[in-house]
Amino acid sequence: MKNAFVTLVTNADYVMGATALVHSLRRTATRADIVILHTHAVTAQQLEYLQSLGCRIIAVDHLPLSDDFNQRHARKNLHGAAPFTKGRKPDFHTPLDNFCKLRLWQLTEYRTVVFLDADIVVLKNIDKLFDYPEFSAAPNVYESLADFHRLNSGVFVAKPSTDTFERMLEALDQPDVFWRRTDQTFLETFFPDWHGLPVTMNMLQYVWFNMPALWDWKSAAILHYQYEKPWEADHPKAERLRPLIDLWHAFHENRDIPDIAGLPNPSTTSAGAIA
Q: Which of 91, 158, 174, 253 has an alpha carbon within 20 to 30 A of 188's alpha carbon?
């Protein structure tokens, strides 16, 4: 059976993100399929370029969840009950869309899938992730070592299974349940003994200025632009993240990429840009 990298596209902004992601994956010479799950808010025309890159395009419906569940997890209600205090989620962020990630467990034609959020670029070949067990994810580390006990669901390894998907639906929509970080909180609960990937397999962009000693371009394999997105004009942390934003634009435009291992780490420089 084949393996696949899977991402989720829920609006035109994430089409831009997925474009940079796919460009970066193609540069690694991966032999795995690249699958784009998309909600019906995204048009076929918006996905034409990704299809021309050889991606498999699959439309998905929202999960069959109760009205009460959907109301509790609507953007206004979720952000009001569990506000994001460490960064800003862009206006196009829709929490309910996140649960569509669980649809990848229905891709039973694949032996193993690696999910990658559409706000990610891959810096080197990561096909070895297909040899990791279910459920593997990197810790949600971007502020302090205290975060090592929490996973980040922007990158994870899964084994598609209809049985697992059905058990997820049953566990997800319980009376009065509230998943404060949507799919991330749910997956952490559903897989309490999750396996830890190295932080280099999901290097969160805030590490750049919060924990610069942890950043190492030579070992970083996946760069994840959590919170503010690199294609947003003049977002609040743009200047602090300028080298990472410039790198994303180079991937998005499919330009020449510099030697990643030779880039200066934040502990040795506070400025720089990708030509």
A: 91
